[in-house]
Write a structure and sequence with these properties.
Length: 99
Amino acid sequence: MSGNCRVLLLDLDGPVIDVSRRYYSTHRRLTLRLGLTPAAFNDYWEAKRRGQKEVDLLKAYGATQPQIQRYSKMWLEAIEDPENLLLDRLQPGAADALR
């Protein structure tokens, strides 16, 4: 690389794009599909902010190991589905900061 090359690395999920609606919507849909009661939106995000893993959250709500395994597989298939991505929003001020 030459000395004139500039690189910008971004973590889009969170700092630039608010993914909270997509993540919660996916969590809610999958837990209901498995016959579980989903966490409330605020409880879900409070747990995520504390660093609680999805697996631990599911266990706290009574999920069995087979349900957790199925949830994990479905999560990977669903989280970046184009329909789900429509739930994302730009963080306030993100566009100005990137300019």
